Amino acid sequence: MNDERSDKGRAVPSGRLSRLGAFGRLAAGVGGGVVAEGARRLAAGERPRMGDLLLTPANATRVADQLAHLRGAAMKLGQMISMDAGDMLPPELATILSRLRNDAHHMPPPQLNTVLTAAWGRDWRRRFAHFQAHPIAAASIGQVHRAHLPDGRELAIKVQYPGVMQSIDADVDNVATLLRVSGLLPKELDIAPLLDEAKRQLHEEADYLREGAMMTRYRDLLAGEPAFVVPELDPDLTTPNVLAMSYVAGVPIETLETADQSVRDDAMHSLIALVLRELLDWGLMQTDPNFANYRWQPETGRIVLLDFGAARPVAPATAAGYRRLLAAGLSGERDAVRAAAIAAGFLGEAAAARHRPLVDAMIDVILGELNRPGPFDFGDRAFVGVVREQGIEMARDRATWHLPPADTLFVQRKISGTALLAARLKARVDIRAMVAGRV
């Protein structure tokens, strides 16, 4: 959920035809950009590849702008691509796509009133002593407003954009089609199971009754935990597309960048410990690591946890696969890591066989970093470039592309996002000691 205080009200396309038309305009715009860029390069004596013509800053801007306008599943998928690709995207494209994590339009007042009237009735304003019309945050699926009840309680109210639930399946299919047409995905790669799982999770995220239940479950699991605070659900005002909870003050987690090293280290130690508990103890994980889902309370030193729509069970087999992989990493045995990575579905057997030297080189780099004595320095990213180059070389062999199981992908998204935050804060955490007692 992104802070959104600028005046960027823009109605969300809620009908099927209007959203389909938006995708059509997007495809036409990208196509026009390809023609223009191709003509420019040909005139300069170059022979560009289609991939080069599609992956231009101008086309990335078109995609980012249109997805930000559509919101819903379309924007959510764009956010996931921009975050999950991490260091693998060209810098200029990563910068543009990152706008989807930081840039969202909000509903204009008439559209907001229509949504709240449908949820609470025509006299909904009488329920509140004050309801702030301008949202304090806006994101892919909904926007958040502050409100005061007559009894003095302060609430945060998340209001879902109209048409989000109904457009999920079509949006996912349309984004997948854009990826296919662009040539970014090889025809041999079967992404149907992943698309089905993405649709299922997005439907779950759009169900605010379910999110409220998950928020309450996390609040119970973390009761008495001094490192975290979770908002309290207001069930009387919560509906399938309006989520009401206690307002919990906090500042963006990124503000910790200027805090003392020990404060940053302690915060990331708590967040990494939480990931381990989710994966290995609870069998339940909030799988969306967007930085905006964490807030920091300087006065208490606590981390505010927000947005539980992506909370989902972790299959026992997935947890067991990670446990074996962690144990192999602690052993420092390259062969054990490779075997565990294949068994868990991280690495395809074809890629491991055809690119054995590259795979082993990547494993050696990672083992060398993780098994250094003392805390792991997330701020030292020198090894990332080495691993990235080896990964890109393997990725050129599209015949060996491999999709891990969907459950593993969602878990890994949380792990990778947590590592990105630790890198942003330049935290130092003794990962080896944290893991050693759990596998």
How much helix is in the residues?
A: 40-55%
Rg over CA atoms: 23 Å
Mean pLDDT: 79
Identify the overall geometry: globular
User: What is the number of helices?
Assistant: 18
How many strands?
14
| Uncertain residue ranges | 2-7, 12-55, 82-90
- Class from secondary-structure proportions: alpha+beta
Distance between the termini: 34 Å
Q: Strand count, sense and closure of the main sheet?
A: 6 strands, antiparallel
Percentage of residues in strands: 5-15%
Q: What this model shows, in words?
A:
With 439 residues, the protein is of the alpha+beta class. It has helices at residues 16-43, 50-54, 57-70, 72-84, 91-97, 99-102, 109-120, 164-182, 192-205, 208-221, 261-282, 316-331, 334-344, 349-354, 356-370, 382-395, 406-424, 431-436; strands at 2-3, 130-131, 137-138, 142-148, 154-160, 228-229, 242-246, 251-252, 284-286, 294-297, 302-305, 311-313, 376-377, 428-429. The strands form four sheets. Strands 1, 2, 3, 4, 5 and 7 form a six-stranded antiparallel beta sheet that branches. The chain starts with a strand and ends with a helix. It is 54% helix and 11% strand. The chain is built from 18 helices and 14 strands. Residues 2-7, 12-55 and 82-90 have low confidence and may be disordered. The radius of gyration is 23 Å and the shape is globular.
Give a topology summary.
Blueprint: E1 2-3, H1 16-43, H2 50-54, H3 57-70, H4 72-84, H5 91-97, H6 99-102, H7 109-120, E2 130-131, E3 137-138, E4 142-148, E5 154-160, H8 164-182, H9 192-205, H10 208-221, E6 228-229, E7 242-246, E8 251-252, H11 261-282, E9 284-286, E10 294-297, E11 302-305, E12 311-313, H12 316-331, H13 334-344, H14 349-354, H15 356-370, E13 376-377, H16 382-395, H17 406-424, E14 428-429, H18 431-436
Parallel strand pairs: 6-11
Antiparallel strand pairs: 1-3, 2-4, 3-4, 4-5, 5-7, 8-10, 9-12, 10-11, 13-14
Helix pairs in contact: 1-3, 1-8, 3-4, 3-5, 4-8, 8-9, 11-17, 12-13, 13-15, 15-16
